[in-house]
């Protein structure tokens, strides 16, 4: 039997024995007349009291009857208290026994803890007026321990399942995964899969295989890890649709914070693993191929890439608001606009070979160029005998070839601008496909400003993967890029050597007939 000191409530009992003994002594001392005490506490009765007793008559009998009734009541109290004490000791023993069983199975606590607390709540609501605290505690502990013992006796493969139904846990909310399970099924049509994720299942599986070492998580005793394919799918779906996280959460049956964490986690893995593989400046052989393709397209030699800068709308930041204020878009849209920039250099297929992300939207194209890594590389001599075609927002430099922008152009200059435009359209169309494929770039995003470059970089890398794998963008996804071009204010001095080379190229185009439609 358990010691009462282990359970304080067992000590809260009332002893009625001394009261019964007291009344028994009083009866023996008072005699049949009852009511008067003898001994040192006896008081002499007055004549008036004696006469009153004679007049009333029967008081002695009633007093004796009252004494007998009181003894019976006290005896009942003692029996009840004894029964309650025995019950409390039994409940305390059961409680300690079941608690020991519960403690001996720590690995089984998780599957039963939710049912334990539910039982506690139900018992409190139903039994709080009819049962003592000891009985309720013992019953609840027994219910929790019974679940633990049942889990011990179940087969190892059925852990966490009872009668075919998954055991719910306190930290996992039950959400529907029907949509994702349907999409992830091998029987799901590839055309529908591509409409949902902007790529075929083969390309999607390639990305999952590449990222698997970086984002795979192990199962724990608390919960099962989210599979790699679902992790990647959450990220790509979020980038492709631009839907709020609460809608992404409903689609995949995951928590909102979990989806947000997965998007950033996968985007960081894309930056670390896929960026070096799929976004890199071409080597000599590859560069010569790109030059020949651009020359066949435009008739202009030595073009190693087509450059364009676009703006991504953002919510007004908490600090440095003026730096991100986009005056041109505000005037055009008649609505206050804030943005960050993405500068990209494309090859002849529209694949990024260089990208510069995250500069404030108040910067002009030439200011973004000055701060890019490409500018530093070119200044160190990386782009010898190679031009990067740019629009009038860039300055004419030793390695940047731009259209004529002054007034009263000659026919030769018009012809040159027309042919250079064909090369520039490669990068502009690529940005149209980029924003059409990843709708999160079309509107203001809820991502924090410090996390935005990682998101934008992941979009550029995934764009390259899709372009290299031949994933086409349907006409329903086409998005027009409307970024105003502004002639630079001589922030970088023009190159006389490149100006002379441009004049020579323009002369050759006009006089040797490279298919210009200007005349």
Sheet of most strands: 5 strands, mixed
* Strand-pairing-aware structural class: alpha/beta
Q: What is the strand arrangement across the widest sheet?
A: 5-4-3-6-7
Shape: elongated
Summed up, the helix count is 19
Q: Give the strand content.
A: 5-15%
Radius of gyration: 43 Å
GO molecular function, one term: metal ion binding
Cofactor: a divalent metal cation
Region (Disordered): 33-62, 148-168
Family: Belongs to the HARBI1 family.
Walk me through the structure.
The strands form 2 sheets. The protein has a 5-stranded mixed beta sheet. It has a two-stranded antiparallel ribbon with strand order 1-2. With 519 residues, the chain is α/β, with parallel strands linked by helices. Among the domains are: 177-277, Cyclin A, domain 1, CATH 1.10.472; 281-513, no CATH class. It has helices at residues 17-30, 47-56, 59-103, 109-127, 133-153, 178-183, 190-197, 201-215, 228-241, 245-252, 256-278, 284-298, 321-324, 327-333, 365-370, 373-379, 411-437, 452-468, 496-511; strands spanning 161-162, 165-166, 303-314, 338-346, 352-360, 387-389, 400-401. β1 and β2 form a beta hairpin.
Draw up the topology in text.
Layout lengths: L16 H14 L16 H10 L2 H45 L5 H19 L5 H21 L7 E2 L2 E2 L11 H6 L6 H8 L3 H15 L12 H14 L3 H8 L3 H23 L5 H15 L4 E12 L6 H4 L2 H7 L4 E9 L5 E9 L4 H6 L2 H7 L7 E3 L10 E2 L9 H27 L14 H17 L27 H16 L8
Parallel strand pairs: 3-6, 6-7
Antiparallel strand pairs: 1-2, 3-4, 4-5
Helix pairs in contact: 1-3, 3-5, 4-5, 8-9, 8-11, 9-11, 10-11, 11-18, 17-19
Protein name: Protein ANTAGONIST OF LIKE HETEROCHROMATIN PROTEIN 1-like
GO molecular function: hydrolase activity; metal ion binding; nuclease activity
Pfam family, one: DDE_Tnp_4
